[in-house]
Design the sequence.
């Protein structure tokens, strides 16, 4: 019987190196999803706070759909749907084409759209917290619409939206666990492989859970640092 | 007041007129809405073209069963979680350092790790404790994937619900406690008759969100071989390779979630009628 420490060691005997690779995949997936989700979320929020009813409607349909679907279902629909869709297109050119969609990219897109639909709500409430006078002040000193957005509204918006976005980042970190279902070798999948091989399921899934917890703790330290930095700017103003 | 002054007043209070013609925003908005319409029409057309009555007759009953499993799973977990959340919230608010620290650790663990990892921990990990469970006669319970899912989900939602409950109770001003004490009500009476009715108004929306999150989160039990709505969908897809199985599941989930969301909004409007001015 191998001891717990052998099982959790680095190298061919232990599984720590495999799990570390899983941590790398999880963190890079979350880090790659974040900018995608933030940009889409911001654009959707812009549409939803516009004075044009059709833009608002388009934004609301987006949020309703991607907030209402289970994340796992979104992931499967994008993973298999993209595979079938691209295959159909490729068949027009080459009837024997077989397409394998990258699980990492599908995961990134699926988590990105879910993240962005929640982020758009956070941005929207931040937009509502900024008084109209800020826009009017921007126009009155001769800034264009885009300049007002970039120089006047956005810095305040980020400060207001930060706590909500930090919360969404923690949710995103947890949601990455779902990609193990489409075969990406993240923390949970590596732990599952280790559990199947060694029959120490409780140990390895427990370790996986503790790693997620550790990532959350590290994130909250980072978030606190960012909030302090942003808060200091506000004091100096 | 002269008619002219009233005229000026109405003129001033009028909101600015909407831009006429076709500004850039409107073109973009109409284009996006048309895109959505085309997308939704495309899905409808796809479902009509791909309609296969044989397939429907074969798999529709299992979708209904799967939906039942999903709803049962969520209902049982939410109720068990609600019961379990009361002592946790109590411990979290207590002045005893040890007790509140313990409750905080519980809440932090279950909110900080993925529900999928917790479910795996219970479903696969429970085998490591087979001799002990056999001894107390619980092994039969944990052998079923469905029971494992209920166990994991109840513990998970208890952590979230404890935080909701605590936040709601703490949102009621201290003066309410003091006022009740000065009237001679004891603590339990105060909580039951004065604090909870006010707290539950605050808690309603978070509770609704938690139920919606549970329904969406319950899809992951498909991975541990429970045939809920998602599990049935996966099974149907793996047998037929027909993509419409996923589209139907998406429609059903969307209908449930939207219905619930509107129901919560309706209840909230009803119970806050006395607060509206």
Sequence:
């Amino acid at each position: 019987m191998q001891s717990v420490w052998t099982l959790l060691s680095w190298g061919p005997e232990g599984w720590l190196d495999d799990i570390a690779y899983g941590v790398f995949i999880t963190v890079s997936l979350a880090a790659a999803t974040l900018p995608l989700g933030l940009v889409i979320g911001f654009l959707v929020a812009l549409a939803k706070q516009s004075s044009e009813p059709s833009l608002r409607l388009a934004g609301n349909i987006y949020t309703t759909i991607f907030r209402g679907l289970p994340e796992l279902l979104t992931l499967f629909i994008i993973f298999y749907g993209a595979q079938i869709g691209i295959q159909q297109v490729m068949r027009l050119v080459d009837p024997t084409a077989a397409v394998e969609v990258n699980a990492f990219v599908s995961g990134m897109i699926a988590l990105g759209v879910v993240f962005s639909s929640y982020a758009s709500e956070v941005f929207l409430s931040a937009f509502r917290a900024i008084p109209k006078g800020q826009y009017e002040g921007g126009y009155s000193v001769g800034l264009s619409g885009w300049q007002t957005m970039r120089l006047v509204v956005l810095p305040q918006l980020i400060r207001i939206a930060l706590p909500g976005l930090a919360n969404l980042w923690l949710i995103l970190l947890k949601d990455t666990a779902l990609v193990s279902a489409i075969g990406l070798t993240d923390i949970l999948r590596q732990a599952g492989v280790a559990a199947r091989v060694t029959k120490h399921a409780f140990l390895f899934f427990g370790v996986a859970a503790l790693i997620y917890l550790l990532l959350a703790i590290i994130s909250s330290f980072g978030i606190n640092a960012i909030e302090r930095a942003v808060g200091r700017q506000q004091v100096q103003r | 007041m002269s008619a002219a002054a009233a005229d000026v007043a109405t003129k001033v209070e009028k909101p600015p007129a909407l831009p006429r013609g076709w500004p850039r925003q409107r073109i973009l908005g109409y284009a996006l809405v048309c895109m959505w319409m085309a997308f939704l029409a495309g899905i409808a057309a796809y479902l009509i073209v791909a309609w296969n009555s044989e397939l429907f007759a074969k798999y529709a009953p299992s979708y209904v069963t799967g939906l039942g499993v999903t709803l049962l799973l969520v209902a049982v977990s939410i109720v068990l979680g609600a019961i379990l959340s009361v002592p946790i919230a109590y411990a979290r608010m207590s002045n005893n350092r040890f007790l509140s620290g313990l409750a905080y650790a519980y809440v932090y663990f279950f909110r900080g790790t993925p529900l999928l990892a917790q479910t795996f921990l219970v479903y696969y990990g429970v085998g490591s404790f087979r001799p002990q469970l056999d001894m107390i006669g619980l092994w039969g319970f944990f052998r079923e994937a469905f029971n494992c899912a209920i166990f994991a989900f109840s513990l998970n939602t208890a952590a979230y619900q404890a935080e909701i409950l605590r936040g709601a109770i703490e949102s009621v001003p201290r003066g309410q406690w003091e006022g009740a004490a000065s009237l001679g009500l004891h603590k339990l009476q105060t909580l039951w008759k004065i604090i909870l009715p006010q707290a539950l108004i605050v808690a309603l929306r978070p509770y609704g969100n938690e139920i919606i999150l549970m329904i969406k989160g319950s899809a992951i039990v498909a991975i541990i071989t429970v045939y809920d709505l998602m599990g049935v969908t996966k099974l149907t897809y793996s047998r037929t390779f027909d993509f419409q199985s996923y589209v139907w599941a998406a429609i059903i989930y969307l209908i449930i979630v939207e219905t619930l969301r509107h129901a919560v909004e309706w209840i909230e409007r009803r119970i806050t009628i006395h607060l509206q001015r």
In short: Chain B has a mean pLDDT of 89. Residues 17 and 50 of chain B are 47 Å apart (CA to CA). The two ends of chain B are 29 Å apart (CA to CA).
